[in-house]
Every structure is written in C-alpha cells, then in structure tokens.
Amino acid sequence: MRGCRIQCPTVSMAYPCRTPARHRESWRMVFLKDIIPAATNTVNTKFIILDKGNKSQEGKETTCVALVADETASVYFQMWGGECEAFEPGDIVQLTNGIFSYHKNNLLLRAGKRGSVEKVGEFTMMFVETPNLSEIRWARDANNPKNFVQEGVISVHSRIFSPLT
Amino acid sequence: MELPQLLQCKPFECENPLGISLREAFVLLQSQLKPPFSLKIPNPSEYSQLNLAIVYGILTQPQLAKTHLTHLHAIVTDGYCFFTSTLIKLVNDSFPRLLGTPRTQLLWLTSKLVDVSAVKIEALLVLLLRWIIGGDFSEPNLWLCAELLKMFLDKWEWLSNDPLVLTSALFAYLRLLADHYRLAGGVKLEALKRMEIDFCVRVLRECFGLCLKIGRDLVRLLQDVVYIPELKELWKDLLFNPDVFRVSGFSDISQLYCVRTPKHYFLLRINPEMETELRFLLSFVKWGSQKRYQVWFAKKHFSLPGSETVMVDIVRFICCAHHPSNEIIQSSVIPRWAIIGWLLKCCRRNYFQANLKLALFFDWLFYDEKHDNIMNIEPAILLILNSVPKYVDITHTLLDFLFLLVDNYDFNRREMIARCVSTSFSLLLQKGVVHSFEPLTSCCLLAPPIHQRLAIFIAPKSTLNSFAPQVITEGEVGK
C-alpha cells in the first residue's frame, strides 16, 4: 500500500500534499552531507533533482533512482509509484521523515512507508555533486556498532549519472 | 457545496501559500459574502480577510461575481490597494497554475478595476502582459494575448492617459506581432493579427509623443514589423515625414536613437519565472556548474518550435536590465557574456540569430557617454574577446556583424553610427572593462578585412579621419 504514504491532513482531496505549518517548524532540517545510514525514518531535508534514471519494477510498484543534491553533497534518491512521474530534474523537493539505508546493496535515500515528499520549487537552488553519499563506503562504528561511520570513498562522482561538462 | 477551485495542484506538489490564504478566508467568510451585507465597519484584520475572500469568490464563482464586486465596492477604503496587490502577488507567482474559469474571471475583474482606477492597476496590467509567452502559439496563450488587447482597445480613453501602460502595451504587442504575422493560422489568429496591427498603428499615430519614451528599442521593434503594409506606411512617415506625428521638437528618427530605453521595458517580454531563473543563474551559479541549469532552462523555456524568438528578448534583458554588482563581477559566478554565448549557440535559425546579434550590439550603434551605461555594451566585447582562444568563429561572426551594422543599419546616418561604435570601443578600454584589444589585433585567425575595419575603430580618435565631423575631447587638446 505504498500509494497511501502521503498523509492527507486537509479536508479536501485536491490538496494531497499539504502538511500543517506547525509540523514544519518542529522539523530538524539536515544537509545531505550530514545524513548517516540508519534504519529509522528521521531524515528531513531539501534537495534539487539533478537527473533521473530509467523506471523499473519492484514487485507491483514502479521505482526510479534519481541523483539529487543540495549545497553540501549529492545522494541517490529512490522514487516509488507516483513519485516517479511527479518529479523531474530541476524540481526542488522537501523530504520529511525519510530514510537513508541499504536497499538491495545500494545505499539510497527514500521516503519509505512513513515519510513523505513534496515539490516546493524549481531551479533556484545551489548544489554540489561531490561528495556523493551513496558512493561512500560506510562501516560499523567500533565504539558503537549501532552506528555507521564513513570508511572511504568509492567514487568521487556518481557512477550511474555522468556529470555534465 | 463543493468548493470551487482556483489553482491547479499536481500530485506531490506543495500548495501555494497565497492560494491557501485565499481559500481559507473564503471558507471562513462565505456566509457574509451574500446580501444583506453587514453594515459594520470591519477592523483592519477583518478588512484584509474580507478582501481575500472576495478575490477567491470573484475568481472562482462567475455566477456570483457581480455580487462580490458590488460588495467589494461597498467595503473598499484603500483605493483597492490591498485587493489589487493580492491579485498582483497571485498573478506573479501562480499565473500558469490558474485554472480556466479563474483566468477568464481575472481578465473580467481587471477590466472592472480599470473602471474604478484602482491603486496599482498599472502594475497588474503590465504583469499580465508579461505572462503572454513569446513564441507560444497555443490556444490559452493566444487567448490571453487577444483578451488583454480587447481590454486595451475597450478602455482606450483610460489607456491613452496612462503613458506607462500605453507604451508597455505597444512594446509588447509590436514584439508579439512580429512573431504572429509570420504564422499562418485560422480565423482567430487572423483576427488577432488584425487587432494587433490596428492597435499598434493607433497608438503610434495618435500618441507618438508618449511612444518616444520607449526610446531606441522602439526602432528595433518597428523594423521587425516593417514588412506589414500599415506599418510600412508608418515607417516611411517616420523617416521622411516626421511632422505628421505632430510632436513639437521631433523632426528626425535619430532623436529616437539617442534615447536609451528604460530598463522596465525589457522585462515585458520576460515572464516572471524566467526572470527569477535568469537572475538566480547570474547571481549565484558558479562558472562550471551552469550546465544542468542551462538544460533545465532550455527544456522549460525553449522547447516550443517558436521559442527562439524569446532568446532575443533575453539578450536585451541581460544587456540592459540585469547589471550585476562589482562583488558578483569579481566572483566566480558565471558572467553575462557566457550566458549570451550559450544563447547564441542555442539559436539555430538565421533570422533569430541576426536579431539576437542586433540585440547584443544595439546600444553600441547609438552609444552616448552622457546618457548610456557601459554595462549595456560590456557583454558583447567580453564575448568577442573571450571567444578568441576556443571559439574564434564566434569572434569572427560578431565582429563581421558589427561592421555590417555600421555600414547598413541606417545608411543615411552611418557616420553617426560609426562614431558611436568607435566611442564604444574606446570607452570599454578607458573604463577598464577590457585591458587591451591586442588579442584581437594579433589574432591571425580573423580575416584581413575584419582586421582592417577593426584597426579603424580602435585607433585613437585623433587619427580617425573617416568619421567627420570630429569631436575634440579634453584629452586631445594638449596632444
């Protein structure tokens, strides 16, 4: 039931992506460079979509991987279902309660069942493509095996989406 | 009752905050929006809420719009300032997302606000002109173009007393006519072209004194429509019979050449979204990181078959209406000339390419140190010089085109134009925009005729003998 992920707090179905302002204020927004792999839906961030890959099927759902970035880093973002059609390169997206975790051996950011995404703008956001957090090797923290720490860089640039030069 | 909708909201898209405020005010006050209206004088906060509710009511309920308008007339205490400002904000941020009924209602409402001379109505009309997208010949866009024009003709009395709106409308419609006239289309398009011709001719014939305020770009626009019979007549009068315009003191087209076009005219053919994106690109994006932005910009604004025409307007906008601060000029932000170079590469058809180059050099042809701004001519010289190492064909094409303009733009005034171009070169050097023309003079990849012409234009003034009469400047007296 992935399609029902977006909470609809308003009365009208015409506004499916509205989130009450008071919730927004309490979010702790993070930059992409500060996200760490974890099994919890706690990532609140804003990014711009740089590129979109081909759609594929996972069970009954369509998925699509995109390269997204903010002014500190880039990462792969996995879109599900309707998200694949709704978002295009150049869109600025707000992710609420997202999850950054391994999915079939790839480290991906996504909304997950408890998170939500909404388009909040277009074009007017700065970004960098390096580092790409999905192209970093992470290891368990020796002091606290629950946590991940950065171990090394696999690739400076995305190996899926080539940078435009 | 189901709530009538104002703006289109796509899945996963954040709702526009003003759209929310308007709807919430409407829902809250719906019961007060029908007669008998309350006689109580609202406090400031109630007044704003009532205004917002009426905006929503008029835009979404055509059958009740007249009642809402009567209500508005009854409560208004600020000359419609808050009401019109709200519409301006809505149109500026969300015009493309306005649904069909609200669009029709908006045009009706605007004409009603003209009738009461609402405060800021000029700004609303100018903004609506900006949302007619250049090179977009789709039904909704041509509809906006035709409806606004009908309104202007309908409100002629009012319009002819408002120089800003009158000259803005003339600027916009001359530009649009140039694109529409080349199109073959059905009855509707033919009627639109007819109306555009009649409007432009009427403004120029009846209010020429006001049109002079547009300055030299009026000439540029007129030359693009001069093959239309009615405008050909007008053009001939402008050249050979300027007295028919009955403007005292106006006796020659060169008087128009001398007036630098005020900045606000260049915004008229750049829609608000495009303006935001161009200013962002030229204020924040670092050299080397512009590629993706360019791809997105092109996809959004250059994807229609007629879109190339907009590139010409963008070049005028960049040269004349977007002047970055010294801080930005010295930073690693992508410079204006590089964006213009990109536009030149995107522009494929000869006709638009020539217009684009004319747009780039236009202020060179009439440059007057007293009245002109060096920033208007800066992008062309930097594009010429910086293209030498890798894209010498651009340097060549641009210089060739500039010299072609000097010879042919206005044959009878070519000496004046040659002097202005020469002044442009020397001021660019004198003011330190460029340090030297040596990269050009020593470039063996430029054809000999280009070198010869260039040598004349960049020579120190005292050695010039081809541009009589000579102007003696202070610097030359002591030599």
TrEMBL record, chain A:
* One of the record's GO cellular component terms: chromosome
Signal peptide range in chain numbering:
none
Q: Which keywords, in A-to-Z order, does the entry hold?
A: DNA-binding
Single biological process term from Gene Ontology: mitotic G2/M transition checkpoint
Instruction: State one molecular function term (GO).
Output: DNA binding
The protein's matches in PANTHER family, at most eight in alphabetical order, are given as: OB FOLD NUCLEIC ACID BINDING PROTEIN-RELATED (PTHR13356), SOSS COMPLEX SUBUNIT B HOMOLOG (PTHR13356:SF0)
Protein name as it appears in the record: SOSS complex subunit B homolog
Highest classification ranks of the organism: Eukaryota, Viridiplantae, Streptophyta, Embryophyta, Tracheophyta
Q: Which gene encodes it?
A: LOC120265410
TrEMBL record, chain B:
InterPro entries named in the record:
INTS3, INTS3_N
Judging by the UniProt lineage, the source's domain of life is: Eukaryota
Q: List cellular component terms (GO).
A: cytoplasm
Q: Which gene encodes it?
A: LOC120277932
What protein name is recorded for this chain?
A: Integrator complex subunit 3 isoform X1
Checking Pfam families in the record gives:
Ints3_N
Domain Integrator complex subunit 3 N-terminal, first and last residues per copy:
46-452
